[in-house]
Structure prediction request, 113 residues.
Amino acid sequence: CLSELVEDYNRLVDLARSRKLPEEACQHGIATVTNFGTFGLTWGTPIPLPNETLILGLSAGVKRPVWSDETQTFIPVTEAEIDLTFDHRVVDGGGAGMLLNRISELLQTPEAL
Prediction:
């Protein structure tokens, strides 16, 4: 359930921020999310940690003009790069592409969660 995931995530973030996260909580992961956008970076190349399958990298949002066929004008749209690096021995490229597409959809329409 999403609410349980958010609750567990918040608990782990609080422990990490207070530097009380137990070592075992940092082991045996298969995926990482890294947000280099926190530092204002608009792109990056995330590299999975040893024994991890994939890493998702999030960049800073940037406003760009996008043409609207409906209004026949440019409208400001915030866009951000997302990058997925994965171990092709474990994950097929098609599956990774579908995952990245789904993440993109959910970031654009969070109410779908």
Summary: The mean pLDDT is 92. The CA atoms of residues 33 and 56 lie 5 Å apart. The first strand starts at residue 31 and ends at 35. The domain at 29-112 is CATH 3.30.559.10 (Chloramphenicol Acetyltransferase).
